[in-house]
Sequence to fold (117 residues):
Amino acid sequence: MSNPDPVSGYSTYQQPPAPERPARRPDNGRRLALTVCTIADTAAGLLVLWVLLYLLDANQANVFVDFVHGTADWLAGWSQDIFTMDTEGLRVVLNYGLPAVLYLLIGHGIASRLNRA
Fold:
């Protein structure tokens, strides 16, 4: 007679079944997280691009430079003149760099929470 138990007289431990989770589509959370990251990265990229164009003394009459400047002004409207430095270049870096960093931190933070959900 064969005994299936590993030690005679003791029964094997059987793990209880895992609780059933409601079915969810993992793609939806990841897709939303990717969208949030893309928006945050684009906003930060436009702000950094404006800072670079300003520091490199780009032609303000150019249509592309004007578009980037207008978009950066709109994105950083809430942070304008937080820093009032005598040096114009430093003022632009700080007043447009702060929103860029915050958009990245907040956007990627929200995306990581969406990925976990």
